[in-house]
Every structure is written in structure tokens, then in C-alpha cells.
Amino acid sequence: MEAPPFASSTKTLPFRSASPSSLLFLPKTRLNFRRPTNFSVRASAAADSAVTLLDYGAGNVRSVRNAIRHLGFDVKDVQTPEDILNAERLVFPGVGAFAAAMDVLNKNGYDGGSNLFVYGEGSTLSRHFKENGPVKGLGLIPGVVGRFDSSNGFRVPHIGWNALQNEKDSLILDDVGSHHVYFVHSYRAMQSDENKDWVSSTCNYGDNFIASIRRGNVHAVQFHPEKSGGKISFLSPVYVGLSILRRFLYPRANLERKPTERKALKLAKRVIACLDVRTNDRGDLVVTKGDQYDVREHSKENEVRELGKPVELAQQYYKDGADEVSFLNITGFRDFPLGDLPMLQVLRYTSENVFVPLTVGGGIRDFTDANGRHYSSLEVASEYFRCGADKISIGSDAVYAAEEYLRTGVKSGKSSLEQISRVYGNQAVVVSIDPCRVYVKNPKDVEFKTIRVATQGPNGEEFAWYQCTVSGDREGRPIGAYELAKAVEELGAGEILLNCIDCDGQKKGFDIDLIKLISNAVNIPVIASSGAGSAEHFSEVFRKTNASAALAAGIFHRKEVPIQSVKEHLLNERIEVRI
């Protein structure tokens, strides 16, 4: 039975952190902290099918839990330190808010001084971590963890599917070969002479960083196995990420290594499937698609356009190779989202069998219900994370926060964007921008950033600015998309979903002018959205702009352009994608 809203289903340590950025696998492992270079590893054969999970309140631990169960194991949650000591297999989802994580470890007596089980990500095991000033780690692995450098043109956070370079036999990575795996993080540990014997694989993003370590039976990874769900091959039923967990859980199993069909080289461009979800006129939750945001059929009945069921479509897109699945609750701005139990169930059911990142948006803001109970936007987001979301998307509320910030020049810390990114990390927060094009004859006529557009306006105008809207494009706001994007980056957004009302549903291609403007203005990843009608539109947006990903909905729902066709086209165009 699912726990009631805002009630934890298990007793957890009093810590909330960013969305997990890695996993640490510990099969019955004893470590000595007082002599970090001379620790002992003790392993024993698994006597049962239970996996011990340390759920300390991180973002989407449900996905880790679901992946373990998918492989046929039960999950036992840590209730006491003794549970850690008695664990045959221990899995510890990683952290993003490092200083807060170390504070919990220290307060609970897990920072060393005696023989203990370690339950921290690779970063936690390091000696020093540079986040809001230097913070000491457990001191087990020599090295310093620092933030990626965005000054060289690489976007931070590092979000997406990247390639591994194996340094030595890691056992659990045997099935990965040269496939992409999913990363989402802003900090990384660097390889050095002191820690080189620990490193089992590296990844390149601006420079080489440690992607995984192995020492005896201890494994730690920076990427997300539970979200790296690509097939080993087109003919294989095995998925890359699950195979990593499987090899950890079955360390002595004779598992065949699968041949590599194609070598992953670098960070891939992402192809994202979007599902606009709302109730139809009979009260059923369905996937729909708007034509310039109008989701009703142009018929006598004027019924909601229905294109499928959300859970079924999400599972199909996962099998088809979608790199992410995004749910948008398009009535969330009108209703109390936590009262929308069917939408929460969609997330729960989807996360049981879909092992790629899930984003959900719609109605992420403060609410007061009919009984006068106040819910903060952080509580709303937390419930989405508990139900299976990896990232949440904020729309209207981010516009209001940006307007206030630009007006006062002060970060209040009270907006939904600031609260959620502070607790869960900016990599867990997407800001969805819904602009429409406004043509002007002279750029000096408006106070907002204007550009010379490729297609002139109805009266021959050569310039335009992009006005942001809220409440599903029902209200225009006095802020441009350029100004909004710059402001939300400063307020803590980790990614921008860039829509375009003018192009929505038109199938004539993405708004290249708009996407080029925004992707050149910010240092965080930008997802291009609205207007895709062919596979060629995807290669165009990746060739002509700095978009990190491209999203589509209707052409996938109607099977006009399959996801696999898009990826095959991009491969032929020599654009890196995950297959």
C-alpha cells in the first residue's frame, strides 16, 4: 500500500538532499576509517534475496528501489546502524548537497573512528569537496571534488548520456561496453596519482573525471545505473543500466558479455518524448496534444483530443529508445496537484518499468487546500519525487519569481525555484518557458532583447522579441524569454525547456531563431520544443543551435515519425545519439 501524501513509507535519516548523482554498492563490506589506505574488505555469499537500501530522503530513490525489485530482489530499508552492519548487499544512492550529507553522517556517528560500513557516494568518500567552500569528506579515497568549469563552453550541470572509458576490469561494467550511460551532476572527482588504483572508468566532459571506482567488493559510480536503460543490442532483452545492478547483485553468476555494436564517443544529443496529460470529458486521464495549445478537436462535440494512455505510451517510448520521458499535467495550474491522485499513480506505475529519466510539470507552486491546509511548493515537488519523478518542471511560478528578481535585484530564497533547487539540487529543476513571437519594426521600440528574424512579420517587420506567457499561454507577461532565461539560471534552474507557442503543433520545424538566442545566452542545458514534424527537424536544430536535447509529442503519439527513425537519421548525419 502506498503511503499517504507527505508521509514517508519508511523510517529514514533526517536528511533531504539533491537528486542522487551516483550509487555506491557495498556487498558485505567492512572498511577501516582510521587507516584509509589500509582498509579491509570482507565479503560473504548472499544468503537471501534482500538488498539493503539506505534511503536518507534523497530525490527519486523509488527508481533505485524499482530497479532492484525488477531484478527479482526484495528491498530492506535501513532502520538502524546495525542494519548496515548486517547487510549482505548495501546500496546507497548518492547525494548532491554534500555539506548537508556530511553533517548527517557526522551527527549519526558514521564519520569514522571504528570499523563501519561506508554508505556514501564516490564524492562522499573523498577527502575534500568544494561546494560552498571546502568540506571534508570521509577521507577514504584521496582526492578533491570540484565543480565543472563552464567557462570553456561546457554546460553545467552535466546532464545526459555520455561514454565511459574503462581503466580496468570492473566486473559490474562488463555489459556496458561502449554504450552511453546517464549522468546528471555539477561536481566531479578528478583522477590523480593518489587515487588511480581505485579508478575503474572515466568520462570526458571538458576534462576527464572519475566515472566509477572499484576496490575489492566496493563499487561506486557517478552515473545513474537505474536510469541508464538502453538495450545492450537491438536483439538483446538486456538493458545497460539494469545489467550493472544485475552484475552487482549476482557477483558470481556466469553472465555472458554482450558484443558492442557501436562505440559511444561523447555526450549524446537527447531525444525526449513529451506526454501532455489531462482528464477527458469522461474524467479519464489521457494523453492529448494541442495545436498552438488548443487540445480540443475542431468538431461538433469539441471533445478533448485523445492520443493514448500515459503509462502505456511512456513504456512504449522507453522501449523505442526515448532518452527521457516528460509528463506535463496541463490542468495543474488550475487544480491542487496533490489532489490529483491519478497523476501521482501514473508516476508510480511508470517508474516501475521505465528506467530512463522522468520529468513531471504542472502546478508546482504553493497551495492552500479546501481545509485551509497550506502546502509549500517544496512539499508538492517532494511528493512528485517520491512518486518517481527525477526532475520537476516549473512554468508560471518561475516567471513570477524572475519578474520579482529583476525588479528588486534580490534573491528572496522563497520562490519554488529557489527552494527546490536548494534542497534537491539545480539538476532536478527544469524551467519551462512558453513564449510567443512579437514583431517590431525597431528594436528600440521595446525594452526586451530583440533579434533579427529569418522570417519577416505580417507587415514586413524584420525584428521580434519573445513574450513569456503563464497559465498555459492564457496570459502574457511583461518579460521576454531572453530575460527570463538569464534570471532563472541565476535563481537555480538546472535546465530550460524552451517551447514556442507560434510553432506548437505546426510540424514546420523548431523556432531556430528563438532556440539559438536562448541556448547562446545561458550556461545550462536547453531543450528545444515545439514544431517538430520530421526527423530532419531534429538534425537542423542540433546543427544550427546549441540545444542539448530536442522534444516532440504529436509526431510520436500519432506514429508519424518513430523515435528510432529520428535516431537513425541523426546517426547518418554524424550527430552523437544513444542507440
TrEMBL record:
Residues 156-230 form the Glutamine amidotransferase domain. It comes from Malus domestica (Apple). IGPS catalyzes the conversion of PRFAR and glutamine to IGP, AICAR and glutamate. The glutaminase domain produces the ammonia necessary for the cyclase domain to produce IGP and AICAR from PRFAR. The ammonia is channeled to the active site of the cyclase domain. One of its GO terms (biological process) is L-histidine biosynthetic process. It is an enzyme of class 3 (hydrolase). Keywords: Amino-acid biosynthesis, Chloroplast, Glutamine amidotransferase, Histidine biosynthesis, Hydrolase, Lyase, Multifunctional enzyme, Plastid. It catalyses: L-glutamine + H2O = L-glutamate + NH4(+); 5-[(5-phospho-1-deoxy-D-ribulos-1-ylimino)methylamino]-1-(5-phospho-beta-D-ribosyl)imidazole-4-carboxamide + L-glutamine = D-erythro-1-(imidazol-4-yl)glycerol 3-phosphate + 5-amino-1-(5-phospho-beta-D-ribosyl)imidazole-4-carboxamide + L-glutamate + H(+). GO terms for cellular component: chloroplast. Pathway: Amino-acid biosynthesis; L-histidine biosynthesis; L-histidine from 5-phospho-alpha-D-ribose 1-diphosphate: step 5/9. InterPro entries: Aldolase_TIM, Class_I_gatase-like, GATASE, His_biosynth, HisF, IGPS_HisA/HisF, IGPS_HisHF, Imidazole-glycPsynth_HisH. NCBIfam families: hisF, IMP_synth_hisH. This is Imidazole glycerol phosphate synthase hisHF.
